[in-house]
């Protein structure tokens, strides 16, 4: 008697893109064909791979007979379309065409989802087909499905994550080897963690796109890339990293999405931002090393949850893609449909000034009595209180201390971003203050 997989006609899978991730998806579909068929209840047949240049050299794992430059024709003869080509166009047009033709869609395209995800969600809902995107955030780490489905009965308060492996590797190297930013970026490029043009990583664009996706899912509110306050790591120096270690912190590029209920500030809504921050060494995110990613979720009933693993790479990302393919394929075989976009909350998106955080400010001041009192007064005038003040017994070997100048490091208590930034500006204008050397936020405390 034939198995269910043998009796069901094959499901046709079209693959858009054959780069590092696409190659691994094609390999896994071939090598694990029997297992995938058993899990789905039907064979998965890779019917074509759309590429820009079918004559270009390819990995031996890719069946060249499947290559085609006719992406539009390919998506119209598929049951499931997998998009790993990246960019907004022609990916958006091809996915909309696939949905219109009745195909389920699996995408790893974070930029497209952050920029115009609602268009795809609306089209998929109207057509009655699935759209899955687990691989768009944090590679192999299962974070989209837990936030979208497992925590659907809970109230997520905060999502705090390291979602860009390149910047985490760079900052980790700066902390462990003493390298400067430029040198650490070059090493990341040599190892294949960073592109030849690392702008999307080091300036925070990649992390911001992922933050927008996570915030949309967590708070049932549409959050676009333009809604995310973004600051990259280009201003982080070796001195910042050394000072972080002295104060019991490490520096991480964090994606932070919070639901705020107003309170003293009177502003309720969603705050989403990406920036480098000091994380206490006691926090789980502080121990995320190298190119790994981790996402820390705080929910009212579930409490604190952390998801950790490889956030990039061909095989890890392909693993997440195949998980989505299996889910979409099962629905084709057994009936049913995956989760739809949830935007019922329609919470307002708060401006960056409404975020509540802490600052650690490093400054050079005249070394004379009364200076700290002036600085403390400036903070108090803006409603910001001091948690701690530190002064090194000696400056670093690389620094040449100017006679009569002292270095101070001030850590504040939590306050609105608007008050903190105004305070720093006021302190910089004080007569005994020579320069503000560094300003970093403190998160996770």
TrEMBL record:
GO terms for molecular function: homoserine dehydrogenase activity; NADP binding. Transmembrane segments: none annotated. Its EC number is 1.1.1.3. Its cofactor is a metal cation. PROSITE patterns: ACT, HOMOSER_DHGENASE. Pathway: Amino-acid biosynthesis; L-methionine biosynthesis via de novo pathway; L-homoserine from L-aspartate: step 3/3; Amino-acid biosynthesis; L-threonine biosynthesis; L-threonine from L-aspartate: step 3/5. It catalyses: L-homoserine + NAD(+) = L-aspartate 4-semialdehyde + NADH + H(+); L-homoserine + NADP(+) = L-aspartate 4-semialdehyde + NADPH + H(+). The active site is at 210 (proton donor). NADP(+) binds at residues 16-23. L-homoserine binds at residue 195. It comes from the Bacteria. Pfam families: ACT, Homoserine_dh, NAD_binding_3. Residues 360-444 form the ACT domain. Keywords: Amino-acid biosynthesis, Methionine biosynthesis, NADP, Oxidoreductase, Sodium, Threonine biosynthesis. Catalyzes the conversion of L-aspartate-beta-semialdehyde (L-Asa) to L-homoserine (L-Hse), the third step in the biosynthesis of threonine and methionine from aspartate. Belongs to the homoserine dehydrogenase family. NCBIfam families: PRK06349.1. This is Homoserine dehydrogenase. It comes from Cellulosimicrobium funkei.
């Amino acid at each position: 008697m034939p198995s269910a997989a043998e009796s069901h006609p094959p499901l046709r899978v079209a693959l858009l893109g054959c780069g590092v991730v696409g190659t691994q998806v094609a390999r896994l579909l071939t090598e694990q064909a029997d297992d995938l068929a058993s899990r789905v209840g039907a064979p998965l047949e890779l019917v074509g791979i759309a590429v820009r240049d079918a004559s270009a050299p390819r990995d031996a794992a890719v069946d060249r007979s499947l290559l085609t430059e006719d992406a539009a024709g390919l998506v119209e003869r598929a049951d499931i379309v997998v998009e790993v080509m990246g960019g907004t166009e022609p990916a958006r047009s091809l996915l909309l065409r696939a949905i219109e033709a009745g195909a389920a869609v699996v995408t790893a395209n974070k930029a497209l989802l952050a920029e115009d995800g609602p268009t795809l969600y609306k089209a998929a809902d109207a057509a009655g087909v699935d759209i899955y995107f687990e691989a768009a955030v944090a590679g192999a780490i299962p974070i989209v499905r837990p936030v979208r489905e497992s925590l659907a009965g809970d109230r997520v308060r905060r999502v705090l994550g390291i979602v860009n492996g390149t910047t985490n590797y760079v900052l980790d190297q700066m902390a462990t080897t003493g390298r400067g930013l430029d040198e650490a970026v070059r090493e990341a490029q040599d190892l294949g963690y960073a592109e030849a043009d690392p702008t999307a990583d080091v300036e925070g664009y990649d992390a911001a796109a992922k933050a927008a996706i996570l915030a949309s899912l967590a708070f049932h509110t549409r959050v676009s890339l333009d809604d995310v306050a973004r600051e990259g790591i280009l201003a982080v120096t070796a001195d910042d990293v050394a000072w972080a270690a002295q104060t019991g912190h490490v520096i991480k590029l964090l994606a932070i999405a919070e639901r705020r209920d107003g309170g003293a500030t009177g502003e309720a809504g969603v705050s989403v931002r990406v920036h480098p921050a000091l994380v206490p060494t006691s926090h789980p995110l502080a121990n995320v090393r190298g190119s790994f990613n981790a996402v820390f979720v705080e929910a009212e009933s579930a409490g604190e949850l952390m998801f950790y693993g490889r956030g990039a790479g061909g095989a890890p990302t392909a693993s997440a893609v195949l998980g989505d393919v299996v889910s979409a394929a099962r629905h084709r075989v057994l009936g049913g449909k995956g989760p739809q976009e949830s935007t019922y909350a329609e919470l307002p998106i708060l401006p960056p000034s409404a975020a509540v955080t802490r600052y650690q400010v490093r400054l050079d001041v005249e070394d004379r009595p009364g200076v700290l009192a002036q600085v403390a007064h400036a903070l108090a005038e803006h409603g910001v209180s001091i948690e701690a003040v530190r002064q090194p017994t000696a400056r670093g070997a690389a620094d040449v201390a100017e006679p009569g100048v002292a270095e101070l490091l001030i850590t504040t208590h939590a306050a609105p971003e608007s008050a903190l930034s105004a305070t720093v500006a006021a302190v910089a204008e004080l007569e005994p203050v020579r320069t503000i050397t560094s300003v970093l936020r403190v998160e996770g405390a």
